[in-house]
Amino acid sequence: MSIETQAILPSHYTSDQLSKILKSECQVKIEDVRAMHRPEYNIIEFIDNRGKLQALNVFLNSYAGPDYATIYSGESTLVTVEFSPWNFDVICALVASTGGFVQRSNGEPWKRIMVKTT
What we know:
The protein is an alpha+beta fold. The chain is built from 2 helices and 7 strands, in the order βαββββαββ.
């Protein structure tokens, strides 16, 4: 089991919407967006600022399950990515654009991030 950075975005987003946010707010290059074996599970592949290919797991149209019910209940989009300091920065920038909650790595506390205002 790998260590994951996770975020709960408090709305239903599409992979296309998240790709646009990642590109504009997180300054990453989107390589591919594809549906996986279930329609609510997508992958967004991007190039991080070190030039490395990363995969963001996107769980569309989700509602907080038992694992997340104490953090947030309601319609949401769950995103996960393999933990690294660079990926954590990308996830934080994404959540700063949408609002939501982020967990740096498995077992660490969740933190609420408010929408960035300019």
